[in-house]
Each structure stands twice: as structure tokens, then as C-alpha cells.
Prior knowledge:
Layout: H1 7-11, H2 19-30, H3 33-36, H4 40-74, H5 77-126, H6 129-134, H7 137-156, H8 158-179, H9 181-188, H10 191-228, H11 230-235, H12 239-292, H13 297-309, H14 311-338, H15 360-377, E1 385-392, E2 405-412, E3 417-422, H16 428-434, E4 443-448, E5 451-452, H17 458-464, E6 465-468, H18 479-484, H19 493-502, H20 528-540, E7 546-550, H21 558-573, E8 576-580, H22 584-587, E9 592-597, E10 600-605, H23 607-613, H24 615-623
Parallel strand pairs: 3-8, 3-9, 6-7, 7-8
Antiparallel strand pairs: 1-2, 1-4, 4-5, 9-10
Helix pairs in contact: 2-14, 4-5, 4-8, 4-13, 5-7, 7-10, 7-14, 8-9, 8-13, 8-14, 9-12, 10-12, 10-14, 12-13, 12-14, 15-17, 19-20, 23-24
Bound molecules: adenosine-5'-triphosphate and magnesium ion (MG).
Amino acid sequence: xxxxxxxxxxxxxxxxxxxxxxxxxxxxxxxxxxxxxxxxxxxxxxxxxxxxxxxxxxxxxxxxxxxxxxxxxxxxxxxxxxxxxxxxxxxxxxxxxxxxxxxxxxxxxxxxxxxxxxxxxxxxxxxxxxxxxxxxxxxxxxxxxxxxxxxxxxxxxxxxxxxxxxxxxxxxxxxxxxxxxxxxxxxxxxxxxxxxxxxxxxxxxxxxxxxxxxxxxxxxxxxxxxxxxxxxxxxxxxxxxxxxxxxxxxxxxxxxxxxxxxxxxxxxxxxxxxxxxxxxxxxxxxxxxxxxxxxxxxxxxxxxxxxxxxxxxxxxxxxxxxxxxxxxxxxxxxxxxxxxxxxxxxxxxxxxxxxxxxxxxxxxxxxxxxxxxxxxxxxxxxxxxxxxxxxxxxxxxxxxxxxxxxxxxxxxxxxxxxxxxxxxxxxxxxxxxxxxxxxxxxxxxxxxxxxxxxxxxxxxxxxxxxxxxxxxxxxxxxxxxxxxxxxxxxxxxxxxxxxxxxxxxxxxxxxxxxxxxxxxxxxxxxxxxxxxxxxxxxxxxxxxxxxxxxxxxxxxxxxxxxxxxxxxxxxxxxxxxxxxxxxxxxxxxxxxxxxxxxxxxxxxxxxxxxxxxxxxxxxxxxxxxxxxxxxxxxxxxxx
Length: 639
Ligand SMILES: Nc1ncnc2c1ncn2[C@@H]1O[C@H](COP(=O)(O)OP(=O)(O)OP(=O)(O)O)[C@@H](O)[C@H]1O
Ligand SMILES: [Mg+2]
């Protein structure tokens, strides 16, 4: 099986105690098999081609021997020309075969890399929000770029050449032993020390390679953060300290890379020097034997040129092993992400998130069909949105800490809109994130029209519930595409215009290319309030049955807010809505208000009732008026 990376073991059988380490390198690389499987025939052919090319190279010394002992010794010029012609043909054949190998592997390996990258991206989309909270984005980025490139390089070179060089060395040594076994033994002398060095090298190199690749991830994170946070950095004059942080990290990385280079230099020194010394010794011993008449000059020439032909296969082992180590590390890092568990499917459907761009169309189409089917099949037992004894603790919070939400009980009747009010940090955003299952409840349950959300598939759920968060994220796409992201496939200009009207986002029509205007990364070319209105339009465009809005109007001036509210009221008339609110004006949008305090809902009623009966509510409404309204939403807590 040509694709099995076993040659590493064949070439450097391990006398050192790092056998376990070696096996885990091989095991790591074996995990690539599912990706390599489809191209195994090509890779196998390429390996056979390369072995053939190497063998052709090994025939050249034999032709030399024939020339020296035959035509040269006999003074036969035509024989010498014939020999030269043979040599030329052999050389051309070798070059052609190696060229063929390259052609054979290039396209399939680019395909393998692209396939792995696509899988990684798809997997990242399906991973729960809790995973992304925990992982630095740079670490994910570097896995999708540098690590995958290392893997492609490994499949292109070391995988084939560890095998090819191993076979070449075996055949070459065989030829040399047949020519003259005493000289053969002299040449073989350094084999054991070289193997031991390889063993030690591999172990050390694997640790350093891992460190270097992790540091590349850290560095990527810093670059990414400083690009995204460039306004803050400039605004606070932090570019020097940011540059210093970057410099320190890149200095560390440089140190690690130098350590890699030193290790490579060390193994290279051993691998190059010892065989050269052995060749020198063989030359001396051989010359003495030729002088004694015990050996023909042609045999010595053939022997030495075989030995020289084997120099490259032996010398290259050092960096082939180094590349294999890096590839094993890259494989580990790749599968660390791929092994992370995706969101449980819930219900019958596939867990793919409809919040990510690409797969949205078909997923949503399927979802709305599913929703229709559901509506006909199951009649709502207790309609509306209901939280039943919901308890929630963030997965990365200390297990002994009190949960953020201890016992939330709340019923929002069908068609009702409920405002959610609470002190900052009380868990309002967290509670809203539980409805589309961005986080899973720790205990208790949430039902939509009587159906437990965990029994619905993600598509069903997310087609029923639309969300707009505090930080209105826009993607690098047109305004229209950003808004229609919230609708099923087939939604067109009519829906777009309606949603823009509801969200008072008609400014979009006045943009240079209207709703076809591209907004930059994260929509930075728009104002905070404009972005917020587009996010709101995205939430309402699909006419969802349930609407969850996290402080959707915080960045708007009072006039715009009033206009949005008037339009929203029409939408909210036939939608069940949960709206996080900080300001009385937003609260007044809703039919009733719920107060979140100490991890539970402590009061429910109309705004005026609560003002009378709940001192905490009255305090929040008087004290928080205008709370955070002038802050750009992008500059929140960065989640
Ligand atoms: N991903 C997370 N992991 C761990 N803890 C978190 C996470 N996100 C938020 N928290 C914590 O949960 C608490 C509640 O946060 P949340 O965002 O729900 O508050 P909020 O009520 O929406 O506040 P605000 O009014 O300021 O928007 C905070 O103390 C915060 O530190
Ligand atoms: Mg919040």
C-alpha cells in the first residue's frame, strides 16, 4: 500500500526508547487515510514511477563498470561512444520518470487539500458557540492554512520519498555488496549511528514542530485582533504596545524556528559526514585492492558511483523525517478541531447551522417544509414561547459556581410580545441565546408552541425563530444579501423592501448601488445605527413565528426609534416576541414586561404595573434611561 506512511519506520528502525513516540507519529499520519484513499491509485503509480526512476539511476554505475573494464581498458572508441549513448538514454529516462511522478501527484493532492479545507470549514460551522467562545480564531485560521499546506507537502514528498529512498538504498546496498562485500561492509559502517541519530532527532523535532505551529496560531490571533480592533488601538494610542506584543510573539516563534533549524543542522551533519567518511574509507581500501590486483578498476568505479548515487537518498532522510513530523503535528492539530463534537442534531434533521452562509438555501427550504408539516401534524398544546425551570451555567464556568440562570419560568403567549428587563450582566443576552439553541440549557426546558426545542431539528428551530443580537454582524456581501440571509430561499425584492421598511432602513435604497451595495467586512462602512437596522430587517424578513431581539434599538436616535417601533408593532402583532430592552421607549413596544434578577424572573406585568409594584424595576427604568445608547455596538465585549 503506497500511501501508508510506514516507510518512516522502515528506514529508521528504532533502537532508542522512543518507539511509542514513533508509533504515535505513524498513527497520527494514518488518520489522513480517508482523505488519501480516493487518490491512492495515483499516489501508488507515482511511487512506483519514482522507484523505477531511482532504479534507472542505479543502472548508470553498472554501465560505467562495463565501459571501464571493457571499451576503455581495450582502447575501443566506438564502445565508449556506445556507452555514452546508453548513459544519455538512462539519464533522459530517469528525468522523464521523475517528471511523470510530479505530474501524477500535483492535481490529486491539490484536491485532497481542498477537500480537507472544505471539511474543516463545514465542521467549524457546525461546532457549538461554546467551542468558538473557547478557541482563538487565529488557531483555527492557522489550521485551515499553514497546517493543511504542510499536509499537502507531506503527501507530495516525504510520503513517496521515504518509501522510494528506502527501496533505492536497499537495492544500492545490495548492488554494492554484490560488487565487493568487504567494501560494502565499510560503507554500511555508519548505518547504526545514523539510525540512532534519526530516532533521537525525530523525538526532539516533533516537540519543537508542535510548539512552532501553535505559535503561528497565536501570532495569527494577534494579527487578526489588531486588524479587527484597529479603531480601539488607534483611538487609545495603543499601537506601540500592540506592536510590542506582536514583536514578542514573533521573536518567540523565531526562536522556535531557529531551534528547528539547529536540530536539522545537527542531523544533517551526522547524515552527511558519516557516509562521506565511509565513502572515503572505501575509496582507500578499494584503491589498495585494485593496486594489489584483487579488484578490477571498473568494479571500484561502479562501487563508488553507486555509493555517490546513494548520497542524496541518505542525506534527504533528515528533512523528509522533519517534514513528516511537521505533518504529523499538523494532522493532530487538524483533528483536534475535527474531533470536537458538533451540536447535537436535535429532532430528525441534520445539525448543519443555517446561520452560516453557504448551505443556507437548501437547508432553509427543507426547514420551511418541515415546519409546515409540523404545524399540520402537531397542534399546539400550550402555545407561545415558554421557559420551564430553565437553569443555565456556561460550559466554561466553574462547576461549583452558582449558575447564571437558576430557575427561569416565563410564558409568552402566542402573538404576545414580552420585553425582558434586567441589570447589565444579569443574563438577558444569555437567555435569548438559549432559544435558537446557541447554548444548551443545563436543566429545564424551552418550548415553542408546546414543542420542546430539543426535539426540533436545528433547521426547523432556526426557521421558526429569528434573532437579532446586540452586536449587529454584517457579512462582506451586499446589503440585500445580508438582509435576505434571514429569509427562506426564493425570497425576493418584495420581502426585502418590506423588511427594510419595518426596520426603517430605507437609507439602503439611497446607497450608491442601492441594496446591491457591498458592505465591508463586518459592515464597517455603515454607522452603528444603520447596521442595527439592517440586522433588524434580517430578523423580520422571514416573517418568523418567534422573534428574539436583543436590545435592537439601542443605537437609534429617538425619532428613528419611534418610527421603527411603529413599524415593528405591525410585525409584532402576529409574532411571538421576546425583546431585551434597556429603555422605557423599547419596553413600551411590548405587551408585558418580565424582570430578570438573580437568575430568575422576579416579576411579570405591564410596564405601569411593574413601575408600581417592583422597586427594582422602577429603579432600572429610571436609572438606565439612555444606558449605553451612544456606544457603537461593535465596540461591546467582543464576543
Ligand atoms: N461565553 C461566555 N462564557 C462564560 N461566561 C459568559 C459568556 N458570555 C457571558 N458570560 C457571563 O454571563 C453574564 C451575563 O452575560 P449577558 O451577556 O447574558 O448579560 P446581559 O444581561 O445581556 O448584559 P447587558 O445588559 O450588559 O447586555 C456575564 O457576567 C458574563 O460575564
Ligand atoms: Mg446583553
